[in-house]
Task: structure prediction
Amino acid sequence: MPRRDLWQRYRKNRAAVLGLGVFGAVAATAILGPLFYRRDPWAFATRPFLWPGSRPEFPLGSDAMGRDVLAGVIHGAWVSLLIGLTATAASVGIGMTIGAFAGYFRGWADDALMRFTEVFQTIPNFIFVIVLVAIFKPSIRTIVLAIAIVSWPPIARLVRAEFLTLRQREFVQACIVLGMSESRIIWRQILPNCLAPVIVLGSIMVATAILVEAGLAFLGLGDPNVVSWGKMIGDGRGSLRTAWYLSAIPGMAILLTVLSLNLVGEGLNDAFNSRLDRR
Amino acid sequence: MRSLRPVHIRLVVMIVAVVALSAIGFAGAQPRRGGTLNFILKPEPPHLQGAVSTADPVWQATSKFHNGLLNYDPNLNPVPELAESWQVSPDNRTMTFKLRRGVKFHDGHDFTSADVKFTMEEVIKKFHPRGRTVFAKLDEVQTPDRYTAIFKFSAPSPYVIFVLNASETPILPKHVYAGSDPRNNPANSAPIGTGPFRFVKWEKGQFILAERNEKYWDAGKPYLDKLIFRIVPDASARAVGLESGDLDLGGPWPVPMADQARLGDLPHLALEPRGYTMVSSMLYLELNMRDSAFKDVKVRRAIAHAINPAQLAAVVWFGSAAPATGPISDKLTRFYSPNVPRYEYAPKKAEALLDEAGLKRGVGGVRMRLTLDAAPYDENYLRSGEFVREQLRQVGIEASMRSQDAPAYFRRIWTANEFQLNLYGISNTPDPTIGVQRLYWSKNIISGAPFTNGSGYANPQMDRILEAAQIEADPQKRKKLWDEFQQFAMSELPIIPLLRLDMVTIMNKRVKNLAAGGLGIYDTFADVYVER
Amino acid sequence: MRLQLGRFLVRRLAQAVLTVVCIAILNFLLLHLAPGDVADVLAGEAGAADARYVAELREKFGLDQSIAVQLGRYLWSIGRLDLGQSLRYQMPVFRLILQRLSPTLLLMVASLATAFVGGLVLGVTASRRARSMVDNVISVLALLAYATPLFWLGLMLIVLLTLKLGLLPAGGMYTIGATQTPVAHALDVLRHLILPATTLALFYMATYTRLMRASMLEVLGSDFVRTAHAKGLSEWRVLYGHALRNAILPMVTLLGVQVGSLLGGAVVVEVVFAWPGLGRLAFEAIFQRDINLLLGILLLSSCLVIVVNLAVDLLYTRLDPRIVLD
Result:
């Protein structure tokens, strides 16, 4: 798949380019922010409830305990992206494996795996995540695992559908005739062709994972040793009337990140699909 | 003498009338009969029976449906309730109560001494979480006639007279509870008592409806027509409800701390700090004495020096707390002693002590790593945990907070004993034998039971002091023992007392007479009325 | 056809039973992995002072027996359609769920209906004038609504409409203690329903709008629509008569999927607005380790999802005769 070609098509969608730009900014904040802005988000740096802009050393103000909001936002970016990306990566990993096996081998393996998938799709997602996190005690690791465990079914279904179609194609038949091993066919031949829709779905899933983490942190089920945007919103809830900026600012950060990811996902979808149309 | 002319008479009459009218005005407004009170209950309790649970919402609810033998004034002096008068023998081993006549339970049965005997012997002594220890020395309750109950103790129990209120020791109807397991009796969720309010219904998750007991023994009371316990699990929703007038009353700290002052400033709301002396909650940092990290007392004292309780009280509790000097609240004047070793906020001293203990700063400036568990059922404890973590970091102690929900927390601390630092709040209760001994007594290290001696601290000298104070009848001698206790406890430091928590009730100004007695929201509400 | 339908239903039923049993076992084992149990919760709340109290509680709830025994007992009672007793409330689980069922259904139906209809109208409008100003505005708003954290949205609505403007109540389902005529009561509930339903609806409406728009665009570009245009049919008829019938299929699927997620997604909204629904009940049951109650809710909601999926599949064959029952 010619990459420059893809980029040309992607570029046509202005909203998608904007989304990529915004996401890039978020990622840059997450990675480079702590290097340049060295304040500890946990330190009691100043007096509580400083409004944004009232003192230049604290551009986004301070929270109920006098901690720097900007430092919190920067660290929150890192946490949100870390959790969003790793949870999605794990989810995609599980989903692709299951989907690939079900779609390639069909028969009873497919039936069993699809039953298995259905079990996870039938349980109410958010409640299940809460149960898992509550059981295994909230930490970044358990949150990532819980989100991954709940999110893989759509990927599995997608990959399975792709495998079912692609398996019939001539190039796969040719490989079988040539005596290529099954694992090579699965991993080297068919899977790369599934990547496009998986990437599109994946980008949306990162956004969802970030929202779920925010929800968990809001409900008090976040990792207590990291500052996440959801935790900031939850903490700021107690002073909503007088210091609504404490909830508003991280809320906006989540909004922008999720928005940009959705735009990127749509842009990728359009770019990949127009290729299909051309064929 | 000249006779009074008519105009003089009119003048006199006018003056007399004005004086008389203003006298009535100064006598204060008369309680208004009628109205509904919306009372916040948080969290929703599993049942409403204070005889088998000391959970805070149960404490608040139970006293509206039941009475105790006594009630208490703002100085915690006993006043009559179901007992009209009482006498304590000089050796503190016999308490004679003369009971009120003509009192009826909600279902019409008479209240007699048999109910008192049954409640004390069959319910409180056997099933009340504190009753087993508080009334351990109660041998029997004698009932020479229908309206006399005599408590006989095998050893002096000087603290018993302070725990006979409706919340702690409600008097139950024998005819309803006899022959059943008190913990499972359906009346626990639909109480039948002698209290000012009758239970009507409980919509789980929403509200409990109670109505005036028209046959209440205190004629003319209660003033309220209806009392609705509102279940609102979310703190911010409670704030909104109080602000909009939908909810009238709630405590302790019904709203997020940051919102409390703002709500108090609103014209229709008021903050009421009175009514919590019976509870006297404290914030403790408990150290797991089984852990080798805390073997050296220097380490324990270093931790005490590293934390600034005044700042904690200001930043996390918004002034609704004050630094503690020892395990007993300074509001319990009968027992408090200021003569204890002090650990003022001094990070340099803390660091010096840690150096002396052989814990030098290593990689990344870290001397030691500890885990910190804060009680998860209250936001404020979690915030306090973050605060403590940050302060310990300044002296080189990396404390990482662990998050878990309430059942996991109880299991971890008091069953598995798998912790190092434990931060939580607990009530002193009106007498330290009841509220404080349980944390320092070696015989109270009980696996599986929360709020017992979790630190595992066991010291024979401490045991001796506590056991002596438990049975000492002479108040002077007892006070001396408690002074000794406080001295020793602050020297040993298995628990670092951080704050005295000042609980606050938030109420709509239309609610009157709440703080007439000493029990605030834990009182029977017979005297409470609402305006408009 | 009748026979085919019958066979289809029987097969799906068998699959459903298997799925439900798997879910029951999975959740049961998971919940037993949780540290601490309901005895710990009750003891902690009661301020219990000794181990005997806790041990007696455990015995009462049957928690002192091996997991295999407990699981067996549970599956057996499920088979008899008995969901057991709530460990905390000491009430039959079924009755507790029934109490909270109507508020949940009310909220679900109100928000999904609003979301579906609103999304349909907005999506069609946007697709009619693709790439125009109207389309851009609708798309942007949809994206914003989708990206906004639900709990934040709820809080902001409370601040605006309850605290600042005093128009709507802050929470709960109805005004307590007031005796009202049935009509007044219905109106009261409606007033309390507006904010939570709007919050949920806005979020789901975003997805429906975008889906409808994409779906309509695809259908509008297809052959049979162009044929209809060529035949001279009015735009209205083409749109609502022909195009919509086809474009609506993905929407119906999504509706089916979201009925299942609504129970979980509603947790946050129910917490923020103190709405007495099943989501909040489940949430609280987790922290009270009320295993029976939680399992009961999870099982019931799973059954709901299965039933709705089945209904959606059947509905499909009505909407598109090309689709045959598998």
About this structure: Chain C has a mean pLDDT of 81. The first helix of chain C runs from residue 2 to 33.
